[in-house]
Amino acid sequence: MKKSTSITLISLLAVIALVFGVLYFTGGAGQNQKIAELNDSVKALNADVADKSAQIETLTAEAAGKDTQIETLTAEAADKNTQIETLTAEAADKNTQIETLTAEAEEKGRQIETLTDEAAEKDTRIETLTADAEGKTTQIETLTADLADRNGQIETLTAAAADKDTQIETLNTAVAEKDRQIETLNTAAAEKDKQIETLNTAVAEKDKQIEALNADIGEKDKQIETLNAAVGEKDQQIETLNADAADKNTQIETLTARSGEAEQKVTELTAAAEEQQKKLDYANMSEEELLAVVKEITPPLEKLGYTVSAGREEPAAPEAAPEGSVETEAEKEAEAEAPAEPAAKTEADYVGVWNCTEFVSNGKTMTAQEYNAEMTLTLKEGGTGNLVLTMRGETKDAHITWKVIDSGIETTDITNKVVPFPLVDGKLQWQTDGGVLCIFTPSGK
Fold this sequence. Notes:
The protein is an alpha+beta fold.
């Protein structure tokens, strides 16, 4: 604004100077009048200049005020920009928080849905378990009633047996006296278990005592056999108690030590009796079970001075059995009926497949079908072969080695133990550790 006013003033002065120059050079009569007019014009211009100057000063002051206002507004604008930037940053932060909270809300929603589903599943599971528990309760009630009925049967049979057998009463009295030792014997239970295991291996030696006890109860045997399907444990309890009392068997002590109640003692003794029955029932035992019985009873029998033979070779001449040896009736019969073959056989005479066609157990001869077992001996050249045993649906195939001996052949068995297979009347015979005689016939003959 100041620059524009200065230019205007300079222009006016230039015009005045030009006018005076013209008047100076033109002269004349009307100069004074023109000078007067010019003076008036100058005055007017001066007045206008003064007015303009005043306006300039006013406008300059206004401009200064405007500049101050502009500076103030500029400062305010800068402050507003700073506020805007701060608010923009805060808004961005708020947006971030909103996004985070939105994501968390969505996650919480998913968790709520998951937990809702899990709660529904747990409700279903609770309903199922509740129904199952109700069924179990009914089953428990039924079993409790059945148990009570069986307890009644046990009591009836116990009373009947007690009336007919004074030995049972004596043994029951001995058992009652042993009850006092239960707490003390609890601490020695682990060691007693080992003693029971050792004594159980000698159960076979007690056969004669069991037979004597069976003879004592006489006609009760039939009743026990009839009831054996339901309460077979009673007969075995009698046998076990007699065996325990006669030989100071600690089995009753351990069994009674495991229970403070008479019913638990009866249950444990019954379990032991069932195990004993399985071990004594040689006719129904598998090959492996018979071998296991012999292995179990061998150590205690040897400690007592007995000798248990793992196999049998045909002797050149009969000899008296050493004192303490164990020999089954089947062995005696086989020795009496099986003379040794001449030792003129070679490996070629035995090569081939031999099938076990007869089993002799406890003096009874049975076919493979009757004995429910199949056994095949395959002899190959070079002294190798296989022994395959199928019993009760289970098959075992053992690789064997064999050689010719005077009485027949010598080969390894299922347990990889070397045993003789004497040749009698053209048939190979194998006496198992369990006392079962297996007779093998060449295939195709």
